[in-house]
Structures are given as structure tokens and as C-alpha cells.
Amino acid sequence: MTIMQKVYWIIATLGNLVAINYLLNSTGLLPSLVVMATLFYTAVGYFDLYHSSHTLNRLYPVVAYLRYFLESYRVEIQQYFIANDTEETPFNREQRSLVYQRAKNVRDTIAFGTQRDLLEDNYLSLWQSLHPKEVSETAKRVQIGGPDCLKPYQASYFNISAMSFGSLSANAIESLNLGALKAGCYHNTGEGGVSPYHLKHRGDIVWQIGSGLFGCRDNSGSFNPETFKAMATRSQIKMIEIKLSQGAKPAHGGVLPAAKITDEIAAIRHISTGRDCVSPAVNPECTTPKELLNFVKTLRELSEGKPVGFKLCVGNPVEFLGLCKAMIETGITPDFITVDGAEGGTGAAPVEFTNRLGMMCLEAVYFVHNALTGAGLRDKIKIIASGKTASSFDLLAKIAMGADTVNAARTMMLSLGCIQSRHCNTNMCPTGIATQDPARSKAINVSAKSERVKNYHKNTLNSFFELVGSMGLDNPTKLKPHMVKRRTPYGLLMSVGSLIEPLQTNDLLNEKPLAGPWNEWWRMAQTEDFYSEDLYILSPAELSRPRKPS
């Protein structure tokens, strides 16, 4: 027997006899409480020994529950009492504190020097200029809209990324949208469709059309042009985004647990209650590159000329180049492409998909920027980076790698008061943000939280423009990949890039030999099917050839 099994039998026999004897020979409340405690311990222990399905309970009756109790608070114990300011993931204490401070409009400076190891492998940094400049007001917005767009949109450099009503509570959605209105940025609906809470405060909306076609599907689940047009032509809808995949779970459909599906959400999405809502992995309207582009054209026409683009997490580079070839063949280009990073996001996802699939945001943005440049398409299409963004440096790095503007999701949740408890998929969010429990969500004060969203957005952008100016630049469009420096394993600094060489305009169309895999990838790319074999073997070339500024 284990020690705790022996302890159990001692209490169940001798302990109960002593307690009963104590009760018979004493007066007052204490003897009764002692007898109740030993009898309760005996009953629970008996169940554990002979009926529990848990091995721990059988071997360690009663006290095993202490382990389960402590385990239920492991994340909070780790977060508050063990981890230092820079070691937690996905957002460490330093990053979360920065978001909280900027959201509350309080001091966000640090004292006594950095806590970071500046010689750490892959540590990113910048070189400042002795002649700092100021970014002009005219350079602080980004126009999104290609040659076929009739209603281009002036976007902020920093925006609220896709988070659905359903994943987030009604009050959280309202707070984000009112915050977007106050901040002058857009708010992406996520694939759950446009809800009344997205529309209530009139903040700019990017309507995301996911593979479930929520908000524009008929009774059979197919695309409904009339329903789409009725919503897309509303003045509050500024852009349309087709979701092909997302960084949290590329090649996997969106998942809304049954516990979060209320009657209201079911009505908005046109789905049933009582079971998980799992979107298909492939958008039914976009099964090939050419079908995707035709869908882009259809949505642009139905929305009366608003910017239309698509979102994806980049995987096999050949498949994205197939999209580029299809754009050239059809003459149809999206107005923007949202590049989601494999760092994950707010959505619940299988562990293997979150941990092992997709390109990270910086390398994906770098690749997409060069692919569009080499195909002669970059001037027609804006790139939106959607990845882990907490600070103005995170924002700057993505712009430098080729993005035109940036979306953030989890840090916008942090600005609302999220504490990174990681209960988003359980309906038990302790802050009322990622839940449909009305008792929890009503704790969110929409007016107050929207101010925090506005403050975080404003203070992060102010820091971003100041950081750009510190490099001697007066416009974020002048940022280039080589301006971001990376610490190598040899302790030296090198310009950030990739295993692939940067391309110049039309390099892929000129049929000239290109360094690295570009020629091989372009040759394998096809327009009739997304799938292409991953045949090219990447080699560690970053130290074997000189890097030239692009």
C-alpha cells in the first residue's frame, strides 16, 4: 500500500473510533465537527479506493484532489509567482504590461536598463540615425484599393484583427468597435459574420467571409449573392476579406464550441445549436486559384466597388506563386492580401496545427512581398500583416519586411483587460471577453473599455512613428528589410532577410536565372489547382552569400 492508503485506513478505523469517543465524552460543537470530518474523509476515500476511474485517486485517496485543485490554477501560479518578465509565452509580462499601460494611458517607460539579453540568438534590433526626423501627417494613413476598386479605403497603420462574435462576447465586440471608431482604425469581424454589436457604434468594418460563409449563406450553406449584397453595400462596411486559412490553425476550419453557441449566434451564422460549429477547411467558393480570383471579382461587383482581398497563412511557396500566375492570366487582382503568421491567434486550435504548421509572420510577409514584386503585381496589391504584435517595434518590423499595414487581435483583447488565462475555448473566460456567459460578459463596461482600445492604438502608433523618425526616416514606406538587424549565433549582427533572395519588379516574368529557389518554384506553380508538390530542398545559405539591400 502507498503511504496515503495506510493513512486512509488508520483514519477510517482508529480515527473514527477516537472521534466518536471524543463526541460521547465531550460537549460543544467541536466534537461533532471532528466526527463529521472523519466520516466524510472515510466516505470520499472509500469511493476513491474502489470506484474512482483515476489511478491517482486509488493510490492516494482524498489527497489526490489537492493535486487537481492546484493543477487547475497552474497557469495563474506560473504567471503571477514564478515566471520572470521576459520568459512567458505567447505574451510575456513585459509585453502585457506595455499593453496595459498604454491602454490605461499611464507611464510606459522602464528604468535601470533593459532586462533583455541583447546578445541572444536572433534578437532583433534597429540602428538609429544621428538626424531623427518627424513623420508627416500625410504619411500616417495607407490607401487600400487597386485599379478595379471604386471605393478605396484610407486605413490606419494599426488595426483590430479578426475576432468573431461568438468567440468574443457581445460587450467585447461593442468595445472593440467603439474603440475602432474613436481610434480611426478598422475592425475585422472575423468569420462569424457581421453582428448587431459590430454595427451598433458605427466603427469601420472589414467583413470577413470564412469558409462557412456565415452571414451570406442560404439554407443549404451555399453562397447567397442577395444576402451578401444587402450587407456589403452598407456604408459601415469598408472592405471585404475572404478567409482561406488562419495562422492559429492553417488547413483547418474554424471551430466554435457548442458551449458558446447561443440562439442569437445560431441565427446570425445560420447554423444549429447544440453542437460544435466547424467550418470546412476549404472555402467552397475558392477551390482553385482562378475560382478564388473570380470570387474576388464577384464580391467587388456585388459590394459596388469596395476593396476585396483574401487572408491566408502561407505554407508551400509554390502554391502562392500559383495564385500570382492566376492573377496574371485572368487580369484579376485582389486589393489586399492579409498574411497571417503561424504564431497563432485567439482561435481554439489543435496543438499540432498551432505548433507545427505555416510560416511565421515576418518570413511570410517577406516572401509575399517579393513574390508580388517579382510577378509585377506589388503596385496593385496592399499587404496586411496579421501576427503577434504588442509593441511599436513589432509593428515596425512587419512594415519593414514588406507589409503596408498591420492587424492585431490578442493585444487588442489585452487592452480590454484580458489576463492571458488561456480559457478562450472553454466559455469560462475570467474577464468576460471570450465567453457567451452573460454573467461574465456583463462585467465589461463598453464605454470605459473602448477608451482603453483607443488609448492603446494611439500610444502604440505614436511610438511607432517616433521609432521610424529615430531611424532618420520621414515615412514608414521607406522602411526596408535590411534595416532590421538580427543577432547571429556567432554574436554578430546581420540584416534580416530570408533564405530567398529579394526580387526586383518583373524578375519572375523576365525568365532570367535567379538565385535560390525562385525559378524552380515559379516553374512548378500552376493556376488550375492550389496543390503543388514541395520538392525544392532549402539549404542554409544565409552566411554563404552577401546580402544586398532591396
Automatic annotation (TrEMBL):
<dbReference type="InterPro" id="IPR024188">
    <property type="entry name" value="GltB"/>
</dbReference>
<dbReference type="InterPro" id="IPR013785">
    <property type="entry name" value="Aldolase_TIM"/>
</dbReference>
<keyword id="KW-1133">Transmembrane helix</keyword>
<feature type="transmembrane region" description="Helical">
    <location>
        <begin position="7"/>
        <end position="24"/>
    </location>
</feature>
<dbReference type="Pfam" id="PF01645">
    <property type="entry name" value="Glu_synthase"/>
</dbReference>
<feature type="domain" description="Glutamate synthase">
    <location>
        <begin position="155"/>
        <end position="473"/>
    </location>
</feature>
<protein>
    <submittedName>
        <fullName>Ferredoxin-dependent glutamate synthase</fullName>
    </submittedName>
</protein>
<keyword id="KW-0472">Membrane</keyword>
<dbReference type="GO" id="GO:0015930">
    <property type="term" value="F:glutamate synthase activity"/>
</dbReference>
<comment type="similarity">
    <text>Belongs to the glutamate synthase family.</text>
</comment>
<keyword id="KW-0812">Transmembrane</keyword>
<dbReference type="GO" id="GO:0006537">
    <property type="term" value="P:glutamate biosynthetic process"/>
</dbReference>
<dbReference type="InterPro" id="IPR002932">
    <property type="entry name" value="Glu_synthdom"/>
</dbReference>
